[in-house]
Amino acid sequence: GQNHDGKGYTGPNEWLAKKFEELHDLYSGQVGKNSFAIRGYQRAAGIMRRITYPITTGTQARAIPGIGMNLADRIDEFLSGAQGRAFYENTEQARCVALFKDIYGVGRQHANEMYRSGARTIDDLRSGKFSLTAGQMIGLQLYDDLKARIPRDECKDIFEIIRSEAQAIDDQLWVEIMGSYRRGQDTSGDVDILITREGGEDNEKKGILGDLIQRLKRKGLVTHDLGTPTDWTAPEAKWMGVGRLSSAHKHRRIDILCIPYKYWGAALIYFTGNEVFNRSMRLYARKNGYSLNQRGLYKGVIRGKDGLKQTEGELIASKTEQDIFNMLGLRWRHPHHRRP
Ligand code: DCP
Ligand code: MG
Ligand code: MN
């Protein structure tokens, strides 16, 4: 449900990965099922996501380490379409899980848990019998509003209010609209805003996010907090919440990220996305001996056997998007073309 984990896989076998996840979820709650086989379905989903070529037969899949006879048979079943696919897509559980996952903050596992505890409809979840976090309750309360796409004009209107309130605090602030809007999409799932302070030095000392959100609440634009920073005045801070233009408008998800000026270019790339583009650009950097994240491009990063960073490395580009593309030897890509 619009949270950042687990979405955006687009590999050639993603649909097979999803099928295996469905099987995993379907059997997880059933007594008498072999738990080893159940975990095998989850592992198979991971394997499907790592294979870079399309799998077209079970026999072909059998050659992949970790894919045994049972899984290969399942793949043939999925590929045969007819019985296999329709059957798994039409289970009540699959339908309910898809429905619940549309709630902000609800992931696949939690959706399955609630199904197993007896939930079948959105109204069931509103009964109070199921455990939900504060954020998920807001997601549930605003279910219809938040699942609707936001037209481009409305994104722009929300952005203009945020920009003008931010610049009323400090006219040196740079405020940009990011995400799918910057990529030129007609509609967005949320409004993503990036803020920094030109020149930088002051920005390293005190951030304005706390002030800004207070002002936006007073204006009536911001209506709910979903994720708040531990330090509202940190120069690098993120806020996630909900707002609306007026009571005649729908509630919309809004993300605001404040970053120190020196990270501007790297943060632009990160927050423009899309997620798959970011993943492939980071992988490209890594294959060439660099490391790219939302703060910059680093060289000399040492990684352990687990792939985790052991040293930060040296920051070699971060001020502008162009600097980072150049340093990687990539031609600059317009945001509208940032697809994998
Ligand atoms: N992002 C990322 N990895 C994530 C989440 C986000 O790299 N796990 C980056 C890329 C996204 C950007 O942040 O494009 C904004 O995130 P959103 O979830 O708001 O996604 P989009 O704005 O791209 O699409 P939507 O219209 O659904 O909001
Ligand atoms: Mg977005
Ligand atoms: Mn967002």
Largest sheet: 5 strands, mixed
Bound molecules: 2'-deoxycytidine-5'-triphosphate, magnesium ion, manganese (II) ion
Class from helix and strand fractions: alpha+beta
| Percent of residues in beta strands | 5-15%
* Structural Rg: 23 Å
Task: Provide structural commentary.
The model is unreliable at 1-6 (pLDDT under 50). Strand 8 and strand 9 form a beta hairpin. The longest helix is centred in the middle third of the chain and has 18 residues, at 152-169. Helix content is 45%, strand content 14%. With 340 residues, the chain is of the alpha+beta class. It contains 16 helices and ten strands. The radius of gyration is 23 Å and the shape is globular. The strands form three sheets. The chain has a five-stranded mixed sheet with strand order 2-4-7-6-5, sandwiched between helices. Strands 8-9-10 form a three-stranded antiparallel sheet. It has a two-stranded antiparallel sheet with strand order 1-3. The protein binds 2'-deoxycytidine-5'-triphosphate, magnesium ion and manganese (II) ion (MN). 2'-deoxycytidine-5'-triphosphate binds next to helix 12, helix 14 and helix 15.
